[in-house]
């Protein structure tokens, strides 16, 4: 893990992408402040206006960040696997470590790195929002802060619980986003190990992530707190998406370990 971390931080392209992923969620704050000053819109209650809540108009930053998240993470965790194959370093590492340990190291590193980068960015945004919007009082729904009103708000248990426990809700959704970032980072890494072709790796990883976004009940609902959708919609989306990522990763690991010779 230490070796992987040193490799990542020593490359300017990867370091730039890490910093971009950490800073990007907080860019939305500038949009909200611009609308506050230019259009005299009220600032929101900070607990309901973190990055994942899709508070800003158009949700442009969220779309660019979440839709293309696998592409950004592949630059950080997947590129070195392709480079290792082209330079012959993959064979050297496998001979030194053994294929099983090589795969284990790469997958553990890609999961933890991807999840950590996304988590740091979302937590930074959450903390900045609490500070910058500290005087905010605007609510999307008429009513009181942390007081659920079924006549004005979506009538689902998930919304009621989320609205009345905003701090814990934000923490849970950040953790869920970190989990899926780790899973897609891990899948992209094993695709890089098995296929070695940059175009195929990026295309397949993006397709596996993006196609569920296009469904009627979009995969993106898994990451959005304070939405009108209930557990009957969110839980199946989360379970089958996570299951798909894990299944594909396991199949590719078995294929690489059992059937591909160095």
Largest sheet: none
The tally of beta strands, per DSSP, is 0
Helix content: over 70%
N-to-C SSE string, H for helix and E for strand: HHHHHHHHHH
Estimated share of beta-strand residues = under 5%
Return Rg in Å. Answer: 20 Å
Question: What is the general shape?
Answer: elongated
* Arithmetic mean pLDDT: 92
Structural class: mainly alpha
Number of helices: 10
Which ranges are low-confidence, i.e. pLDDT below 50, for 5 or more consecutive residues?
none
How far apart the termini lie comes to: 23 Å
Explain the overall architecture.
Helix content is 71%, strand content 0%. It is an all-alpha fold. Helix 4 (69-87) runs parallel beside helix 8 (166-195), helix 4 (69-87) packs antiparallel against helix 9 (198-210) and helix 8 packs parallel to helix 10. It is elongated.
How do the helices and strands line up, and which of them pair or pack?
Blueprint lengths: L1 H9 L1 H27 L21 H8 L1 H19 L1 H9 L1 H34 L24 H8 L1 H30 L2 H13 L20 H29 L3
Helix pairs in contact: 2-4, 2-6, 4-6, 4-8, 4-9, 5-6, 6-8, 8-9, 8-10
């Amino acid at each position: 893990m230490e070796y992987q971390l040193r490799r990542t931080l020593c490359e300017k392209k990867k370091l730039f992408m890490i910093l971009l992923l950490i800073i990007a969620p907080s860019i939305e704050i500038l949009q909200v402040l611009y609308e506050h000053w230019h259009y005299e819109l009220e600032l929101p209650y900070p607990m309901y206006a973190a990055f994942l809540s899709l508070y800003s108009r158009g949700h442009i930053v969220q779309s660019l960040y979440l839709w293309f998240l696998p592409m950004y993470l592949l630059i950080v965790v997947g590129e070195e696997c392709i480079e290792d194959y082209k330079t012959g370093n993959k064979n050297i590492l496998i001979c030194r470590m053994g294929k099983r340990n090589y795969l284990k190291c790469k997958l553990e590193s890609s999961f933890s790195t991807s999840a950590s980068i996304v988590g740091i960015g979302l937590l930074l945004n959450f903390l900045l929002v609490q500070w910058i919007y500290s005087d905010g009082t605007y609510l999307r729904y008429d009513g009181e802060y942390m007081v659920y009103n079924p006549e004005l708000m979506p009538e689902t248990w998930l919304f009621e619980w989320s609205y009345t426990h905003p701090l814990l809700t934000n923490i849970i959704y950040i953790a869920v986003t970190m989990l899926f970032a780790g899973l897609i980072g891990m899948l992209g890494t094993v695709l890089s190990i098995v296929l070695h072709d940059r175009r195929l790796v990026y295309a397949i990883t993006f397709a596996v992530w993006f196609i569920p976004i296009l469904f009627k009940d979009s995969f993106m609902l898994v990451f959005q707190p304070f939405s009108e959708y209930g557990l009957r919609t969110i839980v199946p989306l989360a379970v089958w998406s996570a299951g798909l990522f894990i299944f594909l990763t396991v199949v590719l690991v078995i294929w690489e370990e059992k059937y591909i010779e160095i």
